[in-house]
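Supplementary Methods, section 5.1.

A reviewer requested that the exact input to the structure prediction be made available. We therefore reproduce it here, unchanged from the version used in the analyses.
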Amino acid sequence: MHMFYDQETKQTLTFQEQLEISAGIKLHLRINDNRSTMLSVKWEPDCTKVSLHRMFLQAPQNVMQALACYLKGEHKKLAPSIKAYIEYNLQKLDYSHEIDPAKLQTKGRVYDLEQIYQELNDEYFDQSLGLLITWFGERRRRRCKRVTFGLFHDPLRLIKIHRLLDDRHFPDYFVAYVIYHEMLHYVCPTYVGENGQKHIHSKEFKRREREFRYFEEAQQWIRDNQNYLFLT
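The structure derived from this sequence is encoded token-by-token as follows.
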């Protein structure tokens, strides 16, 4: 019986063979398009189960070698080269087509996220960014030690702003600052240093953050409103 494989299947089989030879163990390999988990491993007596994002099919030799060492147990932690490869390629993934813009919630009771985003995109980025934005969470404040005002999801190209900010207590320049900060995460992406440490806010990120027109005012507002932000 003849078996016919498409090009991607052949590539996956070749990739698995090379990885098994390098690691010296039998693998049960699954290539995925997961947006959150790029690499997972489950070591079992008869076979090591590995799930890898499709990005690894194009991995250079040094990453492949480090991955093989990790799979056969020579390294207890992921090598810096693997972490750096994942972080770099995360910036290139684009799953924004999976989001229906019509279902995003951008208009709040007080602030319109899309309008603020477009104004910032025009003033600071020459309308070069094609990101999505939405509210998340509840407007009600809760007792907490830390508040996450905004998030940026790389693969989705999506900015999420906490609905807590949809309140007149938060000045418009502060809401704009939070959105601008999340936009910078796309422009100045996270990277992994040679020691394997993840750097979320690079020197370039901090420099550009200070270019925001009301940066000092936003920082002062946070200092002046500690009791409001963090209930005691």
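The radius of gyration is 22 Å. These observations are discussed further in the main text.
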